[in-house]
């Protein structure tokens, strides 16, 4: 089962970073590859069990379900219910930790998934280098240019 981890340090307080990231339906506010999403049924974007429906540069038809959200720990987890990617059993986590030196934040985005062996390396590179790392870089740029 491939695992992908990307991280960055943002020159902004952890609570401020978390305030932006915790909006499960608001990825387009910071990730350049995401079009605005909607929460199915119009419910709140921080309700465990809610489903975001969104479009990426790969096209429409992506659905993720929020499986956990913890404001105290500044973390949430989600699963993919449908995607255009050749993967199965996708589980991801986003977390924000305060950096003890300065008023900064450490942000980590990780995922585990299953896929056929012949596409495993391509999927790792896609998530790490095309989705996660550019998203975190854009998040850092957005918060540091405030």
Strand and helix layout:
Elements: E1 3-10, H1 14-21, E2 38-39, E3 51-56, E4 59-70, E5 75-82, E6 88-99, E7 104-114, H2 120-144
Antiparallel strand pairs: 1-7, 2-3, 3-4, 4-5, 5-6, 6-7
How would you describe the overall organization of this protein?
There is one protein chain. This protein has 146 residues and is α+β, with helices and mostly antiparallel strands. It has a seven-stranded antiparallel β-sheet with strand order 1-7-6-5-4-3-2. The protein is globular.
Which properties best describe this structure?
Alpha-D-Glucose-1,6-Bisphosphate, Chain A, domain 4; 7 strands; globular; alpha+beta; 146 residues
Strand content: 35-45%
Radius of gyration: 15 Å
Structural class by sheet pairing and helices: alpha+beta
Q: Percent range for helical residues?
A: 10-25%
- The geometry reads as globular
State the total count of DSSP E strands: 7
- Number of helices, counting only DSSP H or I runs of 4 residues or more: 2
The first-level CATH class name: Alpha Beta
Judging by the overall fold, what is the CATH architecture?
2-Layer Sandwich
Mean pLDDT: 92
Sheet of most strands: 7 strands, antiparallel
CATH topology: Alpha-D-Glucose-1,6-Bisphosphate, Chain A, domain 4
Write down the domain tally.
1
- How far from one another are the termini? 39 Å
Multimerization status: single chain
